[in-house]
Structure formats: structure tokens, C-alpha cells
Specification:
With 395 residues, this protein is α/β, with parallel strands linked by helices. The chain contains eleven helices and ten strands. Strand 7 and strand 8 form a beta hairpin. The structure holds 5'-O-[(R)-(carboxyoxy)(hydroxy)phosphoryl]adenosine (KG4) and zinc ion. Zinc ion binds next to helix 4.
């Protein structure tokens, strides 16, 4: 979950007349569609079109799980057969909606999820060529994430589970990111060290078995993706910043600016806010001196610093704890330099490394279904009374 905008901050969202400290909705006309990637139609959801439910065989490899992910600014629904056959994975991104504010506006995200959820469900069933009554379970992200976003997916999932009389499987979003690897790399074995790098989180987690985690390190301030997004915003590159910085860095010199490598040799925790500030300060200094900074060099040098720290700590944690496998995941795992550098470093250290394809790195419901499937197989069920938890820990 990328860091949401805070009132009064850079690119903040407080509008005139709002009480201090409250987050108000920017002046947006809701007559215009918030989500334009999906037709806003609920065709196919009418109960009259639903056939009778199939007879389910417990724990069959044919298990069909419908998953819903609305923790941040993607409305996603997926249908997974067994542990790794993605029948459909619909992702409706709100990035165009939030771009004009330079970050996520939680109230807008919540409203856009409300608009997109039913069309996403109708579309995923259509693409998967199944009906609600074919489903064996409903998986949903319970947290961490934005409360106003999570409640939309959780309400939809609970309604479906109750209506269809199938189990509800609550899933941790960070755990789901790890499972994107098991969908595409069933050969990945445990124990493994997961490097989870997203817009809201940066963690090194030892996974000893399915559902068993120990957090070895995490960021003390900004998440890696958040640092990418904030630097990109300062460079006027739009939101989300990671993919643009990644692209521009390819044309720049990673050694042009000697940005710091925070806490490189200290423990397993991370700190990216100093590095982010160093990039912003460099830009200011250059502009004050009448020089226009070479954007590609800033991107390449900043990215090189982030990646060096992530890779060094991951390798050290794997070697010191004798963990033979590394699972890279989360939105920042789509970064080309990170993928390449981690692969080179792991190969040199004789550690196996896996990463999901880019579409399964950023938020999507297929990874939630993958995690949900393993929980379903282990007999884990979530009560219909469950509520989302914005700070849901992975352990
Ligand atoms: O996992 P994710 O989709 O959402 C959260 O759970 O936070 O991660 C989104 C983050 C954003 O900060 C975005 O800028 C970053 O992932 N990101 C990247 C790349 N693609 C997405 N960061 C660096 N390089 C990329 N190619
Ligand atoms: Zn995520």
C-alpha cells in the first residue's frame, strides 16, 4: 500500500474551509467516471442468472477460489483453479484518478472501489467462464491497507460467502505478495527468505512453512516504493513513480551522484527517508546554482542506492541465517535493476532466487487467491464477523 497523502503535506489535499487536521475530499466532480478501465455494469450478477451450485470435493486440485483485493488503489478480482492456474485476474487501477494529486487520496480510493467492485466481479467471472455457483471459497485481503478501501472488498467478499454458503478466507496482503511466487514457481521450496518491497512496506521475512513467518527486518521510516514515489513526485514524473524512475534510470549514469547507502552494514532493518531527502536536496542545490539536474542521472543514481541496500541486506540475512532460497515480491519487485542485481548476488552466494512476473508483483487478486488456496487447504476459515485490519501484521 503506497503511503497515502496527508493533509497539508506536499501535494496535500486539504481544501479551503476544512477543519485543521481533517482530510477532505478534493474538488472532484463525481459526475465523471472514477474508473474507466471497466464498463460500469453489473450484468451477470442478477440472481436469476445463477445456476445451481456444483457438488464440491473437499481439497480437490480443481478447487475454485474467487479472490478480492481492494487494500489500496487497485480494485482486483481473480479466479484461481487449484494452487496456480489463474483463470482470470482483473485489475482496475485508479492511478489516473490519483495522479493529479501526486499520491493516493484515501476517500477517493474508497469511492472508486465502490464503483469498480461489482463490474470487476462480473468481468472476472466472464473471463474465467465460471459462475458464482462454481466457487468453493471466497478469499479477501483483510489488511494491511487503507481502511476505506479494505471495507469495500471485505463487504463484497462476506456478502458472496454468505449468499453462496462457501467459506470466507481472510488473507494478509503482505503474505499474498509472497504467494505470487508460488503461483509461478511451484518448485520454490521452504524455508525461504522473503524480501517484500512495496509502496507501504519493506520487510525481510523468514518463512519456515506455509503460514509461519518471522520478521527479520523492516523499514524504520519510508518504504522503498514510497521513496521512489516521493522522489518521482519531486522530479515531476507523476504517480506511481517507481515504473517511471525505473525506465528513465536505464538512460542515466548510476555513478553520477554519490547518494548515501543508509544502514548498509547495520542489521536487517532499512531506512530510506535520508536517501530520499538526499535526492531532493541535491535537486534543490543544483537548481539554486542555476543548473538543471540531469533527470536520468538522478533516477539511475537514486535507484542504484536503493537497490544496493536491498540486495546487500537480503544476501546477508540469507547467509547469516542459512536460508537457501530468496523470494522477491511486492510492487518494487517489478524494478528491473533490483531483479537483475538480486539474481546476480544470489547466484554468486549459491542461493536460489525467485520473483513473480511484473503483473503479479504489483497489487492483484491472483496472489490473494494463491494465499487463500493454501489457507483453505489447511482448514483455515474466517468468520463472517471479521473486520478489516489496516495494520494487520504478517506474524
Ligand atoms: O505492491 P504494490 O502494488 O502496492 C502496495 O502494496 O504498496 O506496490 C506499489 C509500489 C509503488 O510505490 C510503485 O512506485 C512501486 O511499487 N513500483 C516500482 C516499480 N513498479 C512499481 N518501484 C520501482 N520500480 C518499478 N518498476
Ligand atoms: Zn501490495
Amino acid at each position: 500500500m503506497p503511503e497515502p497523502l496527508v493533509p497539508g503535506g506536499p501535494g496535500g489535499t486539504q481544501t479551503s474551509g476544512a477543519a485543521p487536521g481533517t482530510l477532505s475530499v478534493p474538488d472532484v466532480s463525481f459526475a465523471e467516471p472514477l474508473v474507466d478501465e471497466l464498463e460500469l455494469t453489473t450484468a451477470g450478477l442478477e440472481p436469476a442468472t445463477l445456476p445451481r451450485r456444483k457438488e464440491t470435493v473437499p481439497n480437490s486440485p480443481e478447487t475454485l477460489i474467487l479472490a478480492i483485493e481492494t487494500s489500496c488503489d487497485e480494485t482486483s478480482a481473480a479466479v484461481l483453479r487449484g494452487d496456480r492456474t489463474i483463470l482470470a485476474n482483473v485489475v482496475s487501477s485508479q492511478s489516473a484518478l490519483h495522479e493529479r494529486y501526486g499520491g493516493i487520496v484515501p476517500e477517493l480510493a474508497s469511492r472508486a472501489h465502490v464503483q469498480a467492485i461489482n463490474p470487476a466481479l462480473a468481468e472476472v467471472l466472464r473471463q474465467a467462464d465460471v459462475t458464482f455457483w462454481d466457487l468453493d471459497a471466497i478469499a479477501v485481503t483483510l489488511g494491511p491497507g487503507l481502511m476505506g478501501s479494505l471495507v469495500v472488498g471485505v463487504a463484497a467478499a462476506k456478502s458472496l460467502a454468505a449468499l453462496l454458503e462457501v467459506p470466507l478466507i481472510g488473507v494478509n496482503h503482505l503474505e499474498a505478495h509472497i504467494y505470487a511466487n508460488f503461483i509461478e514457481h511451484p518448485e520454490a521450496s521452504l524455508p525461504a527468505l522473503a524480501l517484500i518491497v512495496s509502496g507501504g512496506h519493506t520487510l525481510l521475512v523468514e518463512m519456515t512453512d506455509h503460514g509461519l513467518y518471522e520478521v527479520l527486518g523492516e523499514t524504520l521510516d519510508d518504504a522503498a516504493g514510497e521513496a521512489f514515489d516521493k522522489v518521482a513526485r519531486y522530479l515531476g514524473l507523476g504517480y506511481p513513480g517507481g515504473p517511471v524512475v525505473d525506465r528513465l534510470a536505464a538512460q542515466g549514469n548510476p555513478k553520477a551522484i554519490p547518494f548515501p547507502r543508509p544502514m548498509l552494514n547495520e542489521g536487517y532493518d532499512f531506512s530510506f527517508s535520508g536517501l530520499k531527502t538526499a535526492a531532493l536536496t541535491y535537486m534543490d542545490r543544483e537548481r539554486r546554482a542555476g543548473r538543471e539536474p540531469e533527470i536520468a542521472d538522478v533516477c539511475a543514481s537514486f535507484q542504484a542506492a536503493v537497490v544496493e541496500v536491498l540486495v546487500a541486506k537480503t544476501i546477508r540475512a540469507a547467509v547469516e541465517n542459512e536460508i537457501p532460497t530468496v523470494l522477491l515480491c511486492g510492487g518494487v519487485a517489478a524494478n528491473s535493476l533490483l531483479r537483475e542485481s538480486l539474481e546476480v548476488a544470489c547466484t554468486a552466494a549459491e542461493i536460489k532466487v525467485y520473483h513473480p512476473s511484473p503483473a503479479l508483483c504489483t497489487d492483484n487478486a491472483a496472489m490473494v487467491a494463491g494465499c487463500g488456496y493454501h489457507r483453505y487447504r489447511r482448514g483455515i476459515r474466517t468468520s463472517l464477523d471479521a473486520t478489516p485490519d489496516p495494520n494487520f501484521p504478517i506474524t
